[in-house]
Every structure is written in structure tokens, then in C-alpha cells.
């Protein structure tokens, strides 16, 4: 097992857009294994490479009975349905807030061997795909919260023993937002 430390809110790597993977090699396979082992050890539904301090477009997921990874993912929204529900993040441990997301998405990318894959996500899996893809764009789910909820979230974060006192950065996601920044 290769569990790595998870970067916490305030670490600049979480706000830096990741670059596309170009080499589907042993190093990428090791990264996917590290992501998987760390996500599993932390009890998370997903984990993106920037959360381990690696600026590559890769994430793992394990939720709603589905598990896997995506390299260089994109997603498209299917339908108009949205969902509001609790969302947390391993980089913001122990806290969650209701966040609006699309209910159905189709993600496309590659596996660690460079083979194309497609994942259809509904409900929790759709939320996870959107959340992890946002991480790859330097966007945190806090950015998607309405202003009042985001202020409440920041107050709660500032009270956490792990918080280093840095000021938040709010980023605009390239993906559709619902009431966010």
C-alpha cells in the first residue's frame, strides 16, 4: 500500500490547473495506484492527483458501486436535472455542505494504459465525476456554494486545527455553475 499525504485547503497546488497526461507509462500507473491506495485509506469517494501534489489530469473514484480511474477526463451534462446534496472533500476533512450539481453526466477519458473509457454517472457518481474534474481545473467545491453558505463554510474551516490561516481563493469553473461564483 502506498498511502500519500493529502494536501489540505490552502495549499496552492489545489488552485493550480493540472496539465494533460502525455505519457501512459509506469510512472502514471504508480500514480493511479497511489491515488487509489490513499483514497481507500482515507475512506473517500474520489481523489484527484493535485490532492497528492501532482499536477496531472488524473483521478480515481469509488462510489455507488462503481470504481475506477480517469486520465485526461472531460464530461458532458445529460439532461437538465440537478441535485442538491451534501458534498465533502478529503482536502477539507471532516466538513461538508450542500452543493448543487448536475444529476447525470457522461465522462470520457483514458485508463492508465491509454485505452479510451466512458463512464455514465448519475446521482453520487455524477457528483464525484464533477467534483474530481473540478479539482483538475483548480476549482474546489466551495467555489460552487452560494455566497452565504461559502461564508459559513469558511468560518467552519477557520476553526479547524488543520487550517493554516490562509485566505481563500475563489475560482471560476469552466464547467456550468449553479449559484456559485
UniProtKB/TrEMBL annotation:
Binds 1 Fe(2+) ion. The active site is at 132. Its cofactor is Fe(2+). It is an enzyme of class 3 (hydrolase). InterPro entries: Peptide_deformylase, Peptide_deformylase_sf. One of its GO terms (molecular function) is peptide deformylase activity. It catalyses: N-terminal N-formyl-L-methionyl-[peptide] + H2O = N-terminal L-methionyl-[peptide] + formate. GO terms for biological process: translation. Fe cation binds at residues 89, 131, 135. CDD domains: Pep_deformylase (cd00487). Keywords: Hydrolase, Iron, Metal-binding, Protein biosynthesis. Pfam families: Pep_deformylase. Its EC number is 3.5.1.88. SUPFAM superfamilies: Peptide deformylase. Belongs to the polypeptide deformylase family. Removes the formyl group from the N-terminal Met of newly synthesized proteins. Requires at least a dipeptide for an efficient rate of reaction. N-terminal L-methionine is a prerequisite for activity but the enzyme has broad specificity at other positions. This is Peptide deformylase.
Amino acid at each position: 500500500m502506498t498511502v500519500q499525504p493529502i494536501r489540505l485547503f490552502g495549499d496552492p497546488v489545489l488552485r493550480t490547473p493540472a496539465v494533460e497526461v502525455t505519457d501512459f507509462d509506469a510512472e502514471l500507473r504508480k500514480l493511479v495506484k497511489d491515488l487509489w491506495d490513499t483514497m481507500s485509506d482515507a475512506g473517500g469517494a474520489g481523489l484527484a492527483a493535485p490532492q497528492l501534489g501532482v499536477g496531472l489530469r488524473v483521478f480515481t473514484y469509488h462510489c455507488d458501486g462503481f470504481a475506477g480511474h480517469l486520465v485526461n477526463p472531460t464530461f458532458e451534462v445529460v439532461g437538465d436535472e440537478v441535485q442538491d446534496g451534501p458534498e465533502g472533500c478529503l482536502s477539507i476533512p471532516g466538513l461538508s455542505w450542500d452543493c448543487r450539481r448536475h444529476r447525470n453526466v457522461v465522462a470520457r477519458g483514458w485508463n492508465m494504459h491509454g485505452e479510451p473509457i466512458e463512464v455514465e454517472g448519475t446521482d453520487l457518481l455524477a457528483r464525484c465525476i464533477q467534483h474530481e474534474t473540478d479539482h483538475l481545473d483548480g476549482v474546489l467545491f466551495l467555489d460552487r456554494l452560494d455566497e452565504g453558505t461559502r461564508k459559513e463554510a469558511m468560518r467552519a474551516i477557520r476553526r479547524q486545527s488543520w487550517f493554516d490561516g490562509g485566505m481563500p481563493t475563489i475560482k471560476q469553473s469552466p464547467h456550468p455553475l449553479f449559484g456559485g461564483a
